Amino acid sequence: MTQLNIDNTARAISWRPLCERRDLVANSGVVAWLDEAQVALFHLPSTEQGEQIFALENRDPKSGANVIGRGIVGNLKGELVIASPLYKQHFRLKDGSCLEYPEQRLRAWPVRLNGDLVEIAEA
Amino acid sequence: MKADISSIKSETLVIIGNGMVGHHCVEQLIERGAMAHYDIHVYGEERQRAYDRVHLSEYFGGRDAESLALCEADLYGTHGVHLHLGVQVLDIDRDNQEIVTSAGRQRYDRLVLATGSFPFVPPIPGAEGNSRLVYRTLDDLDAIRDASAKARRGVVVGGGLLGLEAANALKSLGLEAHVVEFAPRLMPVQLDDLGGAALKARIEALGVGVHLSRATSEIVPGEEYAYRMNFNDGEYLETDLIVFSAGIRPQDALARSASLEVGERGGVIIDDDFRSSDPTIYAIGECASWNGSCFGLVAPGYSMARNLASQLVGEQHEAFSGADMSTKLKLLGVDVGSIGDAHAATPGAKSYRYIDEANNSYRRLVVSADNSTVIGAVLVGDNSYYDTLLQYAQNGIKLPADPSSLILPLSEGAPTLGADALPDTATLCSCHNVSKGAVCCAVDAGCTDLGELKAQTKAGTGCGGCAALVKQVFEHELSARGVEVDKSLCEHFAHTRQELYDIVRVNSITRFDELLAKHGRGHIGCDICKPAVGSILASCWNQPITDPTLVPLQDTNDTFMANMQKNGTYSIVPRIAGGEITPEKLITLGAVAKKYDLYTKITGGQRIDLFGAQLHQLPDIWGELIEAGFETGHAYGKSLRTVKSCVGSTWCRYGVQDSVGMAIRLEDRYKGLRAPHKIKFGVSGCTRECAEAQSKDIGVIATENGWNLYVSGNGGMRPRHAELFATDLDDATLIRYIDRFLMFYVRTADKLQRTSVWRESLEGGLDYLKEVIIDDSLGLADELEAQMQLVVDRYECEWANAIADPEKLKRFRTFVNDQRGDPDIHFVKERGQPRPARASELHLIPVTQEALS
Questions:
Q1: Which of B14, B301, B432, B613 could, after both became Cys, cross-link B285 (CB 3.0–4.6 A)?
Q2: Which domains does chain B have, with CATH numbers?
């Protein structure tokens, strides 16, 4: 079973394939190339809401390095987050906002699993 | 009666003196809401607002007047306190309740004298100008600085506390400093003969001349220097300037001219409520004489200021009952401490003494006639004993069975005072006078957070020296009230690392999700609990960390088995056991570094670090390294890093054992052991200790008869020497002890706690550790050894394991859908090697040329 994480916008946007499902690493991140952007993909096969996938900008605003996809996925006070591997600040998977520093924010893309494909849409 | 018709305030309070005590009184008044009731006028003779006289010598060490100031410039103004600086009070007109200044008159309803003291200069013929300097105010220091401009040598008359501070000041000015003291020892009030001698030796070692038992009879012009001081024993000393610091006298001139009663040796006579013979006039600090004594230290002055402020706002206040003159200082960088009856003047008092002539350390413990309580102490060279001794002395705590343990070197396992042993009256924080009772009250009122406690009580917010004690008492009190001290790992686990370790082991748990479901709460975990549990699972079962259920737990460095650097690239450290490497392998490292253009550096642990590899390059690089016989060095893990060694008896003419052989044997045994923190070893082939083993978690030093084992040292931010644990061990016993030690550490340490901090936190200290490891007091030895053997048997090079598994290699792609490298990574050349480009250099780089792909 595949469940979208952004249901209400799903109909309004056009999806394009990004990579394959088998490229993902469960409960962790990988990075895909999207035109000139780097997209960190996080795959959570079994959350309370079922299977989920998220797409965030790979660039860590604090260090300027492209490392977000190599952080640790976590759940803080009910929110799914990724901890940046360099300075350990946390970003919400749902929208890329930062828990500790409101001025840091990662771009977030709508993303979904469609059969064996990972599909992404322009936000 | 109103002092000022425009004010609704009912009384005028005048404070004469804006020194440390006068200022503290104002602060305490403001804090207690006195501004609602009083119109406050403060008069200071000096131009500067109150400053820190205790640290006056730092004025020559780079601190300016502003940084020595005790408060922000606008504190008084903000609260409506009228501060009159540079205004001398000339007289007190008691009949009209007015003070007279050069600027006019000011009425008072109540008057506080906080005029402090002045330096006593003995009447010596010829003392004037630069041969009659004093050391008390910033102006005095400016005068000393001016005098020092063309001076080479300076002399301080007076070897007391202030005199030594003054000598430090002269030294900071670059002068050759000398101290001349009338008494036969330094700090005659606080120290005994042996303590004075130890201090003298230490100070002389710093290049300061010390001349005791000398009285200056006259000062005459000198031949080589500006002045010559002739002593009454016929000797002399020449110098360019002389600072007198031969004691202080209470500044009671105003009180005398106003016919207030003064003490025989000076000082405004006060009662237990700080009232002088005129009930509208109070005196506090060094200008006051209570019960025949003046107090020349800041702490009693603060205590008076606090109590008086309480009294003035109508709060219940404690009658003054004297002050403890115990003191701990750093004079010229030397620790000096004196507690209570330092001279054992109490009838029947007995002393314990510890003398270390090699290091000029001295400690004396003075106990009561019945050997039951501490009544005094002298410390020179190491004040780490002070706090415990002071608690014993102030609170009448019963001495331990062997009182000498209180002053013997700490590595002997001296008992430190537990939170439980302190009575409620014990002062924890002397800066803010917070007692254990106050902490208990806060806990009773519902405070369960240390930060909150500090905000409420101010405990630990002064010098901070009591922070550890405050925390200890706080946690103890919480526990005693049945409040669980929150030592939860994070929001997902209400357990400590130690508890989780036991749960994992007892229940044979091998997966994070199982542990979370059965013993945690919530879902997924976080970046605190995941790596901690990952480490515990590895310590217990030693499965490859890249296995699918384990890899999401790892920090990025463990995940990719390399060390992430600031630009997102990785460094690679192959294992070079014992620092021994063949030329072939060295060539391989060079060839690989050259091929992938990696920055190459020798590490502190006798290995070679290759920097600047991108994620997708790691498998290729490791393929070549493994081919050449290398295996992973775990530089990325909380695990065994290196075993550093010297060449030992194989090559060295001094070596007595094969240290390289032992180092390789140890490194091969413990490589891959994951622990609460990184672990480093050192093995030296003789007592010269070239491998610096005593700075390692495990240090092994060869002896004629085997090996000496040292444990729990480390370098880093807070270096700690390893402690001698066992001597003359054969190879098998050495390894057995290390097995047990490391596994006991893995089992009981907190997360990210190194062996040094763990060892210091062990109740019972080194002796306890010896009992567990050597005497097997817990009956754990076999189990610990078996656990270690399991880890050893399951060892497998993580990189070799990953390279062989295409599923695991999937992660080592910069982009899962593209072959290119990270286009944002740029290097420039420096000293013939690549380094990350700085932001400012980026626009200079033609991207197509320099970007690695």
A1: B301
A2: 11-118+250-312 (3.50.50.60), 121-246 (3.50.50.60), 324-417 (3.30.390.30), 420-486 (1.10.10.1100), 497-557 (no CATH), 637-796 (3.30.413.10)
This prediction's pTM:
0.56
pLDDT in tens, B428-486: 877 677 888 888 888 888 887 777 788 788 787 665 557 767 887 888 888 777 776 66
Per CB distance under 8 Å, which residues of B are interface residues toward A? Answer: 491-492, 522-527, 530-531, 548, 551-553, 555-556, 559-560, 564, 566-568, 615, 810-811, 813-818, 820, 822, 824-825, 839
Radius of gyration of the CA atoms of chain A, in A? 13
Question: A75 vs B526: CB contact, 8 Å cut-off?
Answer: yes
B144 within 8 A of B137, measured Cβ to Cβ = no
Q: Contact A23/B568, CB-based, under 8 Å?
A: no
- In this structure, is residue A58 part of a structural domain? yes
| Total count of domains within chain A | 1
Q: Torsion-angle region of residue A78: left (phi > 0), alpha (psi -120 to 50) or beta?
A: left
Q: How is residue A102 annotated by DSSP?
A: T
How much is the ipTM here? 0.90
Which ranges of B149-210 does DSSP label H, i.e. alpha helix? Answer: 161-172, 193-205
- Is A116 at the interface with chain B, CB within 8 A? no
Substitution target in A47, A76, A116 with the highest count of B β-carbons within 10 Å is: A76
Give the number of A-B residue pairs with CB atoms closer than 8 Å. Answer: 106
> Cβ contacts (< 8 Å) between A99 and chain B: which residues?
none
Query: Tell me, what CATH number does A58's domain have?
Result: 2.102.10.10
**Domain of A71?**
7-120
Could you tell me the pLDDT band of residue A123, with boundaries at 50, 70 and 90? low
Question: Does residue A37 sit at the B interface (CB-CB below 8 Å)?
Answer: no
Would you say residue A1 lies in a domain? no
Rounded to 5 degrees, φ, ψ at B378 are -130, 130
Please tell me the distance from the alpha carbon of residue B15 to that of residue B20, in angstroms, as a whole number: 13
